[in-house]
Amino acid sequence: MNEAEARAVLGVGVEAQAAEVRAAFRRRVRRAHPDVAPGAAGAALDTARLVEAYAVLRRYRPPPAPPPPPPDVVPRPPSGPTGAGSPTVISLSGDSLVYPGPPDEVFRRLVEVADRIGDISYLDHRARLLDTVVVVDGVACSLLATLQGRASGTEVFFTLEPLGAELRPAIEPVVAVVAAMLADRPNR
Fold it and tell me: Are 12 and 21 in contact (CB under 8 A)?
């Protein structure tokens, strides 16, 4: 008996948890067992099938959930004067990105990108804060970037707030543009 047949015998769906399977088994055995229904034809066979189905489902382990999709990545051409080395990869995740480099280098590169996409309104190298006025979909906004060193590189967190009473534009396209510009900018 396979898992699908066992579920049909016990009358449980694929999403049924162990407690539900056990309850269904007990409920059906109480009705079909030869001690409860001594005159019923096939009671012993029915009970045997219920026991087998329950045993199959107790051993059954659902396949693991598929892994989450990888974050969007923007490859960068090889760096360095000779072009040697593997390409740098920037990982995007909603309102943040991870750049494989030390925080000081990433901050310097981020300042260069910010100067190209808007007007820098605040810069604190020690605190790793960078605020830039940008225009997104016709709305003047403050794009705040904060940096945090990680084992895999530097994570940059962004917030985007309109400077007026307009609705906040989506931040993901802005982060994608910053990531693409970081990727296009060769190392010095």
Answer: yes
For the chain, give the DSSP string.
Answer: --HHHHHHHHT--TT--HHHHHHHHHHHHHHH-TTTSTTSTTHHHHHHHHHHHHHHHHH--PPPPPPPPPPEEEE-PPPSTT--SPPPEEEEETTEEEESS-HHHHHHHHHHHHHHHSEEEEEETTTTEEEEEEEETTEEEEEEEEEEEETTEEEEEEEEEESSSSPPPPSHHHHHHHHHHHHHS---
User: What per-residue confidence (pLDDT) applies to 37?
Assistant: 73
Superfamily of domain 3-59: DnaJ domain (1.10.287.110)
Mean pLDDT of all residues in 163-171: 91
What number does CATH give the domain 72-184? 3.30.530.50
Task: Retrieve residue 140's tokens.
Answer: 């003047």
Q: What is the pLDDT of residue 82?
A: 41
| Entry pTM | 0.53
Indicate the domain borders of the chain.
3-59, 72-184
Q: How far is CA 7 from CA 50, 53, 116, 136, 139, in A?
A: 10, 7, 62, 54, 57
Structure confidence by residue, pLDDT tens digits, 126-137: 999 999 999 998
